[in-house]
Amino acid sequence: MTPNDPSSRPPSPVADAGELWAAPTAAGPLDAVVAVPGSKSLTNRYLVVAALAERPSLLRDPLVSRDTLLMADALRQLGADVVEGGHAAEGVGPEDWVVRPGPVTGGSRIDCGLAGTVMRFLPPVAALADSPVEFDGDTRARERPMGAVVEAVRQLGALVEDGGRGLLPFSVQGPAGGLRGGTVRIDASASSQFVSALLLVGARTREGLEVVHEGPPIPSLPHIRMTVEVLRDAGVLVDDSTPGRWFVEAGEINPLDVQVEPDLSNAGPFLAAAAVAGGRVRVPGWPQSTTQAGDVLRDVLDQMGADVTLDRDGLLVEGTGELYGVDLDLHEAGELAPVVTALAALASSPSRLRGIAHLRGHETDRLKALVTEVNSLGGRAEETLDGLLLHPAPLHGGVFRTYADHRMATAGAVIGLRVEGVLVEDIATTGKTLPDFPGMWASMLAGVGA
Ligand SMILES: O=C(O)C1=C[C@@H](OP(=O)(O)O)[C@@H](O)[C@H](O)C1
Ligand SMILES: C=C(OP(=O)(O)O)C(=O)O
Fold first, then answer.
1. Catalytic positions (predicted)?
2. Binding residues
3. How many alpha carbons fall within 13 Å on the CB side of residue 153?
């Protein structure tokens, strides 16, 4: 049992009132435009690729949140220079980041926080350095699956000291003379990030890198497609024509000049709000085509009863407050499970979410946490082998615990729109991927947009 293990929930839902955020109920139908900050997954991929590129890159409107600031700090430790905003050079806006690559250096300690992208993407980068790099993170980070990354980095010739646990904390010492490359075989069934991590460094090996997945199906495949697309944007040649096998050619990485798309998964709670409260919420800048898994929200919200329109002005969701249950396989978009669960808990018919066993290794054991918290408000949720079942039930107020999980916190806020007296614990945990969730939520409810 650990501090953020849902099974450690005390029997009585009493917490320090100072830690609780009274989730506002919606007084009526919404009418808001919500500008959602940049994608976490794109920002952190662009940062890594830019740090390994030949010349400086420009990231326009990156996400500025705990996960991306940790990534920027870590890359600085590894020898790159990341200049956040306020850069006077021509064509660089105050919100933009400039990344100047440098030789990858070691001798540092990387704080991964609870960011999967930092803890998985950077050990292969550290293996390019000439001296050891130590990795550690939050308490829960020490429980998140890391074995495939550790094994892969060893297959690349690096020395990893992990006390035989295959978990954080550990140190990585790359082989003298850099990475040769070759073939790495891993089981990526616990996280797509294991594959992305290796692809990101492939071009910097001498012979190119073949990654072969051996094991049960990989979750979150759109995130691997995103990695491949970002690499191609930087001129890297990637062969992904065979399922479960990727080959990245060795070669120079071109600098990037990219506009970061809004984070579509982070848009989820705001769009869900229109479905719960009725009215309309628009998210400007929704891409017409994207590799972000969050794009699936359009279909999910439509199935749950909302009207969804994608046009040049962005994505518009219009709801009536009537919500229908769904039977969904979220294997490719597990990030959405918390917000979909919140909607399903408020729906008039049962829901089944499948294909998301890997969520047990996310920020917390999300399946256990969602069942525990929905049921603590009177809901009827149960865990299955690979997902959740939710049955309609009248909900009541109470403490909604979040276990250091940003998406638990936003799920609690969605339920609170309709259920009086929901107190969300540690709302600040949303800062992992959203800089000001409470402010954005209040603006949305005021109808003026964020
Ligand atoms: O590569 C990425 O940016 C991500 C991949 C996915 O991880 P898993 O494959 O571990 O689900 C996703 O859930 C996570 O939020 C972000
Ligand atoms: C699983 C998630 O994050 P991470 O990048 O830390 O894996 C998430 O944001 O839902």
1. 335
2. 40-41, 45, 116, 144, 191-193, 220, 335, 362, 366, 407, 432
3. 33
Residue type, 410: T
Among 386, 276, 372, residue whose Cα is nearest residue 329: 386
Pair (287, 191) in one structural domain: no
32 burial (CB, 10 Å; 0-12 / 13-18 / 19+) is: buried
Q: What is the extent of the structural domain holding 83?
A: 40-259
Same domain for 396 and 422, yes or no, is: yes
Ligand 2 atom 4: the closest Cα is on which residue? 116
366 and 281 part of one domain: yes
Give the active site residue among 134, 332, 335, 373: 335
pTM recorded for the entire structure: 0.96
Task: Indicate the residue among 236, 259, 282 that finishes a domain.
Answer: 259
- Residue 9, in any domain of the structure: no
**Does residue 421 lie within any of the structural domains?**
yes
Shortest CA distance to 103 belongs to which of 196, 206, 178, 181?
178
> 415: phi > 0 → left, psi -120 to 50 → alpha, else beta; which?
alpha
Question: Are 204 and 270 in the same domain?
Answer: no
* Residues 312 and 442 grouped into a single domain: yes
DSSP H or E stretch at residue 57:
strand 57-60
The verdict on 76 and 30 lying in the same domain is: no
Q: Whose CA is nearest to atom 16 of ligand 1?
A: 41
Q: Could you say which of 259, 284, 318 is where a domain stops?
A: 259
Helix 40-51 with 66-77: angle, nearest 10 deg: 10
Q: From first to last of its 450 residues, what are the pLDDT tens digits of the chain? A: 344 555 554 433 334 434 899 999 999 999 999 999 999 999 999 999 999 999 999 999 999 999 999 999 999 999 999 998 866 677 888 899 999 999 999 999 999 999 999 999 999 999 999 899 999 999 999 999 999 999 999 999 999 999 999 999 999 999 999 999 999 999 999 999 999 999 999 999 999 999 999 999 999 999 999 999 999 999 999 999 999 999 999 999 999 999 999 999 999 999 999 999 999 999 999 999 999 999 999 999 999 999 999 999 999 999 999 999 999 999 999 999 999 999 999 999 999 999 999 999 999 999 999 999 999 999 999 999 999 999 999 999 999 999 999 999 999 999 999 999 999 999 999 999 999 999 999 999 997 544
